[in-house]
Amino acid sequence: MARIIGGIGSSHVPTIGVAYDKGKQNDPAWAPLFDGYKPVAAWLAEKQADVLVFFYNDHCTTFFFDMYPTFALGVGERFPIADEGAGLRNLPAIRGNVDFQAHIAESLVNDEFDITVFQDKPIDHGCASPLPLLWPHQPDWPGTVVPVAINVLQYPLPTARRCYRLGQAVRRAVESYPEDLKVVVVGTGGLSHQVHGERTGFNNTEWDMEFLRLLEEDPEALMRMKHADYVRLGGAESVEQIMWLSMRGALGTGPLRKLHQNYYLATTTAMTVVLYEEGEPIARQTGPAAAAVA
Questions:
Q1: Catalytic site residue 12?
Q2: Catalytic residue (choose from 125, 196, 227, 260)
Q3: Which InterPro entries does this chain map to (predicted)?
Q4: For a surface tag, which of 48, 153, 177, 186 has the fewest beta carbons within 10 Å of its beta carbon?
């Protein structure tokens, strides 16, 4: 039986990919960000994860506003990485496991999620920005990806609770697959940021820390929040945080053990990566370090 072995929350800022491609991993401005992903990459290598299920949003690369699905799942052997204006990236196409992807698609529909299924479409920075920080890619990726795109651009958006329930449905789909696969769920986006309008450059570290605490300890509180609440607290684009609830829903209803957290605010986006396993929490860290690296 396939099983979920952990969950990752990650920002998907497009400039992360640009900095990575330009070899800025040791640049003083970028090293704190890239170093923050190393423990997560080491954990994935140690666990030998077979599949990453990515909950992400497409930024009008695969879809556009004339037909923008609420939930969409990719089924295909390969997905090209999109050129978003900075040129083609020196990364192999993202690998897929068609049998597993098709099983999840069928299971979700039978679980009353009317999803869109896509293939042969490029994947943008919503997934491709953090992916090479998590997995090596030469000569190829070590496993496959299930891309699950969530609409956080064109209103009406799915509710935070609906995203959580999507994660629960994905868990049921994974656990009903007969092959022995080790699966990690990844929720992307955020945290606080706004890139347009009167509040351009807005961030709220206090809210970011509270969001991370609630995600771990009280996701029900986050499910009760409206989109306007997320926008007010974290900026217009921080509504992406509802995608982290899909990851959280896929991790079950029991307690979580946070293995690692890195929070780096050096641009307009609070860039964050967090790693969870199911199980009793580790004793909570206090003080300034808790807001940076745990």
A1: no
A2: 125
A3: Gallate_Doxase_N, Xdiol_dOase_suB
A4: 48
